[in-house]
Amino acid sequence: MTLDRRPLMTAWLVAGCLTLVRPAALAQEIATTPDVQQRIKTFESSLMAMPQGPPETAAPAAKPQTLADRMVADKVPGVSIAVIDDWKVEWTKAYGEIRAGGGPAVTTETLFEAASTTKALVAATVMHYVDTGRFNLDADVNTYLKSWKVPENELTRDKPVTLRLLLTHRAGLPSTSMGFDEKAGAPTLVQVVKGEAPASNKAAVPEAIPGSTWQYSNVGYALIQLILEDALGQGLEKTMAQVVFEPLGMKTSTLAYPLPAALREREALPHDDKGMAAQPRMHPTAQAQGGLMSTPTELAAALIELMRAYRGDSTRLLSRDGARAMFHPEVDLDPRLFGTPLSEGLGVFVKGQGATLTILHPGNNAPGSVCWMIGFPQQGKGAVFMLNAANGELLAFEILAALGGVYHWPALM
């Protein structure tokens, strides 16, 4: 997965156009006060179709539409949303179907693929152990690796690969798909980082001098997984359960896939760009780059905890210093990459500072699963939304804009 490179500006420009019409259909919700219900209705009726084509020629939709209409237009069968306000989940709501064509309804307990949003929680796990002194962000990762070492070459001789560089996609590792030969069976994690059959990805070996450039790298996070597993002597699933899931009450979040039998009926199936159900392609062994299954409600719990740690209000997951290091901009990214100036923190994208500080991480798994996590640490606001379709990338921007308008979020432009 890489970030969708459609300009984020367009989503924010339409955020102020609000009209009340009918709410989205096939919805299951948890909400409380009349004020909250009104905000939900306003959000559901204020989505705008993303302009297509170059910005100078593409015209926005003439009027706002409902979420239900946009789901049909974008061929997205299911959506689940959790909205954070005043440091708590204000409301959660689910729409549509787990499987297109009459499948069970999506509920707020339906499990979706978090895709690359997984990286934010993996980074928080690493930072937890930085807090305890177990890891040094700037040490050569070969000091932690046991089952495989990053080969030394002319690129790494003077500048080794470190956790800081891996977390910020600056280790010089390749941008590569994470496939494997299914007929030959699942590769081991070591085979993945070595780029060895049956894995079909490139190896976790620098192609550029570490620290010299930013290049989004899924295999870099597979290497982080191997570091954690080698150093801690247990699988990533167990480590994240101990550090993140159990302390924060994330009872169904898991890296185990296929899902345990008790959870399989709650899995939202991915859908292709035509809206047809497809089989998931979750990697069986490399999990850190995009293997989390979760719900918006549970991911929102993690986001709230990270934001509270940033303010010094909680240390259940990270210290204040750990959270501030995570949200500190390590490198400014070329605005042309994503249509707006963003920086890379440790496992999250960062924009603004002070009251406008924004942290985010989107995710997109083939053949069609989308997740967005966005938070405003100084304001106690944010949201997580998950969709089960390839075209969920389009609808995610529309949801982002509508929520931003209702809750007066800082603009991403």
> Could you tell me how far the N terminus lies from the C terminus, measured between alpha carbons in angstroms?
23 Å
CATH topology of the largest domain: Beta-lactamase
Radius of gyration based on Cα positions: 20 Å
CATH architecture of the largest domain: 3-Layer(aba) Sandwich
Shape: globular
- What number of domains? 2
Mean pLDDT: 91
Q: How many β-strand stretches?
A: 11
The helix/strand order is HEHHEEEHHHHHEHHEHEEEEEH
CATH superfamily caption of the largest domain? DD-peptidase/beta-lactamase superfamily
Helix content: 25-40%
Structural class: alpha+beta
Q: What share of the residues does DSSP label as strand, in percent?
A: 5-15%
Unreliable runs, pLDDT <50, ≥5 residues? 1-27
Q: What order do the strands of the largest sheet run in, or round the barrel if closed?
A: 1-3-2-11-10-9-8-7-6
Number of alpha- plus pi-helical segments: 12
Question: Sheet with the most strands?
Answer: 9 strands, antiparallel
In the CATH scheme, the class of the largest domain would be Alpha Beta
Describe the structure.
By secondary structure, this protein is of the alpha+beta class. It folds into two domains: 8-117 and 238-407, DD-peptidase/beta-lactamase superfamily (Beta-lactamase), CATH 3.40.710; 125-234, Beta-lactamase. It has helices spanning 8-13, 34-44, 67-74, 118-131, 163-167, 189-194, 218-232, 236-245, 296-311, 320-326, 335-338, 392-407, and strands spanning 27-30, 78-85, 88-96, 112-113, 293-294, 331-332, 343-344, 349-351, 358-365, 369-376, 381-387. The strands form two sheets. Strands 1-3-2-11-10-9-8-7-6 form a nine-stranded antiparallel beta sheet, sandwiched between helices. Strands 4-5 form a two-stranded antiparallel ribbon. The longest helix is centred in the last third of the chain and has 16 residues, at 296-311. The chain is globular. The two termini are 23 Å apart. Mean pLDDT is 91; it is low at 1-27.
